[in-house]
Amino acid sequence: MDTARLRDRVAASDPGLLRLAAGLRTVGAIALTLAVLGVLGSSVAHLVAGAIAAMVATFAIREKQRTQQAVTLALGLPVAAASMSLGALLSSRVLAGDLFFVVLIFCAVYGRRFGDRGTSLGLIGFQVYFVSLFVGATVSGLPELYGVLGVAFLSSAVARFLLVPETPAGLLERLREAFRARLAQLVSTQLQLLDAGPEEIDEALESVREGTARLHETALMIQGRLEEGTSSEAAARLVQRRVADAEIAAERLGLLLLTARSAERADTLTLHLPGAPAPRAGRMPGRDEAMARVRRDLEALRQLVLRPAAARSGTALSQIRNRLLGYREEENLPPAPPAVQDVFRGIGEAARAVLGLRIALDGPQDESDDSPATARSREELDAEDAVLDAREEDGEQEELTGLRRPTTRAAVQVAVGSSLAIVGGEFLSSQRWYWAVLTCWIVFINTASTGEILVKGYRRLLGTVLGVLAGIVLAGAVGQHTWTAFALVLVLVFAMFYTAPLSYTLMSFFVTAALGLLYTLLHTYSLSVLVLRVEETALGAACGVIAAAFVLPVRTDRRTNDLLVTVLERLDEVTEAAVDQLSGGSPVELLDQARDLDQALADLRAATQPLTHPITPLRARRDTARYVVALLETCAYHARSLAATAELLPTHPSIAADPRLRRAGRRIGANIAAIAAHVADERSTARVETGPSIASLLETETPGTPRFGRVTDRVLRHVQRLDETLVGLARPLDVPIAAPGR
Description:
Blueprint: H1 2-13, H2 18-39, H3 44-59, H4 66-89, H5 94-110, H6 115-134, H7 142-163, H8 168-195, H9 201-229, H10 233-261, H11 288-306, H12 316-326, H13 338-362, H14 372-386, H15 406-428, H16 434-444, H17 450-478, H18 482-499, H19 504-521, H20 527-550, H21 556-582, H22 590-607, H23 609-612, H24 619-646, H25 661-680, E1 688-689, H26 694-697, H27 713-730, E2 737-738
Parallel strand pairs: 1-2
């Protein structure tokens, strides 16, 4: 039991074990390189060069398929050899060496436009040239350095393909387990929300928000690995559908719990906006036995998520599953206030999502102990699976040319910034000027605006300062014990890769501490060298910011506006397609469109980090950015829910098309277009329209016609909330709102 719990926690904290695998693979490659070179009696300088080359050859590879990884690694060796040769040849020719370094940097960044392989080879070429400067490569020493590179790349291949292998199918399987673990954690936080008193509600709600965001993050990671990790497109679509169902059901359950705690329906925004007020009505209303049953069923749902394979015939879990699925039928709901009964319904829908997820991931299950409610749920899932068709869409994107292309612009910027760093670095130190260039290069990686570069440069400088302090302590403790120093370097490298996705500051701290040890091994360690490291880092970061601000600049406002327009376009596509299908239109691929919306929103969230960073002095602007992103996350939740419901139309008799929904869809689409037009051009005269509620738009003039037809109340609520949220989104973006009837 303890082992299973620990495994679940590790899976949830590191989805797919990506960070663990990256750390182990890199450390394994370095350790193997050091072992081989040590047996061969290589010098300390060659050991250092081999260790850095092995690290570069391992982390530079970005492809997902093993064959593609092998090809890139094979191509990387001659690129590394050529870079090392030029570094040694130009080491005594200062001007020529500097000019070539700038050209190399430009080419390395420009290579991103050629995909993962171009990015990898550019990274290898730059980093190995840096290694040649770091160890003082000479022409006479090139033959031995070629051997070092060969050992490093071969060790990297052994670590990647033999010691710590990774297959797309295996990685996807680990991501699935991470999704299960994070889903169980979210249910646990929802259980805490149920029991939270007035003093604990804010902390409990924040845990629910974090759990919901982590679950969504894992769903996006799965989406990115489905094509390579599944046997067929049909299998990929099935997993995609079941993951989406579970994600939506879990988020909806959290909303129902919030609603049951308050006197009126909870605002969806509460789950997406940090600091949003929590319901203050105290504990959930209802009889004690109903509350005890909700608590028991939430715990049962968590167990069902964690150990789905154990739910076999005759077991307690199969009986629990049957009971929870029974809540999907009105006659099985326990006596309780309406809001609490909604919670039971939400638990039933979540149990159905877990059942579908289990079937999609683990295959057919024992059905001998099924209750009638469970059997009906299985029939629904089977019917849905039967109509899942693979559809491909050829989306055409505008091809940017010249300096408008992001890779070209970034290459020019980093070349200019590196030129400034070379000049300034030479004034600080004629031997170690390349540290400034390295920092300038790094702050441009995975950044696209001046604000992002500024934040990244600040984080690197902070991590470097702290790493220098740690390096002083470690260098003094290690002294001249070579293999002890290398052992500590391996620990620091593992920590660097394990923490890289979590904190850039921590990563910079560990890499700087490791460099302090490498300086010690090369007998070049001194306090002045480490201080120079800080100075060069600050210079490089400053040069990067200057280049980003004055050379083909992309302001943070402009980038976030562009991404905001993209999010609104994706939202319009998903909403229009879902409402059209719910209104009787032709089926389209909704889940892929929903995931495109999710990815666009993730890009926007990352781009707003400079605006929402704690050090930003513009507090009102920071709060506005957070509020806008939270509103968009709320819109995305309702759009995902509409898309998932629309895809049920062919199989669920309780959900039928209602042509009257088109009237509501037209207003929503027009409002999204108005907001997008205003964001793209502040001079736009488009206005957001308000008016009667969505429910009133479905009214019919024909006596005796059912008010909502066969469209469920849930669909109506999602459409209504989406309409209201769009009006709320218009206000912080200063989009004019037309009064009703005008």
